[in-house]
Amino acid sequence: MVLPSHIPSLRQFMLRRDVMVLYRDMFRTIREVNDSYYREYLRDWVRTEFKNHIKETDEREIQLLVAQGRKRLQEFQTSMDNAFYRT
């Protein structure tokens, strides 16, 4: 069975879910930053990074971007554990 082109495949659907989970996880982590100016800077940075890649359609590139985002999120969470930014 062939799906219409506007309906995503299961792989595309799951990749989209991964992107959305990463986005939410980043904002949940940013919410814990105590400094309001730094928190707003991080929010703007995350929004900009995601908007810069919103038109990306290559699945491999999206997977790479998600992996890089997860790594950055982990690094940020680790640095927050070792710093005073957490509320």
How would you characterize the overall build of this protein?
One of its GO terms (cellular component) is mitochondrion. Involved in efficient integration of the N-module into mitochondrial respiratory chain complex I. It is found in: Mitochondrion. Helix content is 70%, strand content 0%. By secondary structure, the chain is an all-alpha fold. It has one domain (21-81). Helix 1 (10-30) packs antiparallel against helix 2 (36-52) and helix 1 runs parallel beside helix 3 (59-81). The chain starts with 9 loop residues before the first helix and ends in a 6-residue tail after the last helix. The mean pLDDT is 90.
Fold blueprint:
Elements: H1 10-30, H2 36-52, H3 59-81
Pfam families: Complex1_LYR
Domain Complex 1 LYR protein: 19-75
InterPro entries: Complex1_LYR_dom, Complex1_LYR_LYRM2
Question: What is shown here, in short?
Answer:
This protein is mainly alpha-helical and 87 residues long. It has 3 helices and no strands.
SS elements, strand count: 0
Q: What is the domain total for the residues?
A: 1
Q: What is the makeup of the main sheet?
A: none
Q: In terms of per-residue confidence, which ranges show pLDDT below 50 for 5 or more consecutive residues?
A: none
| N- to C-terminal distance | 52 Å
The class by helix and strand makeup works out as mainly alpha
What is Rg? 16 Å
Give the H and E element order: HHH
Count of helical segments? 3
Helix content: over 70%
Shape field: elongated
Strand content: under 5%
- Report the mean per-residue pLDDT as an integer: 90
